Amino acid sequence: MMISEVCHEVKNWFCCDRIFGKFKIDGGVLRFLDASSTIPVNMGLQNGQYFRICKSVFNDGVWQYKDTGIPELQDEEFTGAVWLMKVPRDFLQLVTDIEAWQEKYGGLDSPAQSPFSSESFGGYSYSKASGGSGTKAGTAVTWAENFASRLNRWRKI
User: Do 86 and 92 meet the contact criterion of CB atoms below 8 Å apart?
Assistant: First the structure.
């Protein structure tokens, strides 16, 4: 899931609440441990809601909450933060579009990742877009450069 990378790129986590303290992940289920006990406390996450884990050894990043648990989460106890997120649908569509572009053009064997900006052989030649001018001239186009105009809407300073 690329949402972590895209949120990092725009420096926007769509945070609506932050919970600090001790957390436990067991069998893909994330629980907040109340300071007064080791009994798990409900954090108010809704099924399908995105959240960010911070200061975890194994699970830092953005995840989508599922009532049944998130099998990709590794078991651990950590002291850190969980940020509840309100991610707009338009942003999620942008992430989906970036994932599709990355799947098509992001691989090492993709022509978009070739170090060559043009080639010519046997009477055939071509030129492709590059990553800009100056020090980046001739480099491959990244998803961030390709989607810059759409990302700017969500960018925070």
Answer: no
Same domain, 81 and 128: no
Per the structure, the complete domain to which residue 123 belongs is given by 107-151
Q: Where are the beta strands (DSSP E) in 27-149?
A: 29-33, 40-41, 50-54, 61-64, 76-85, 118-121, 124-127
Q: How far is the C-alpha of 59 from the C-alpha of 102, rounded, in Å?
A: 23
Q: Is 98 part of any domain?
A: no
Structural domains counted in the chain: 2
- Chain-centre distance for alpha carbon 10: 10
Co-location of 17 and 74 in the same domain: yes
Give the mean pLDDT per block of 10 residues along the chain (157 residues).
95 96 92 69 86 97 93 96 97 97 79 61 69 55 94 95
**52 & 11 share domain:** yes
Is 74 exposed, middle or buried, given 0-12, 13-18 or 19+ CB atoms closer than 10 A? exposed
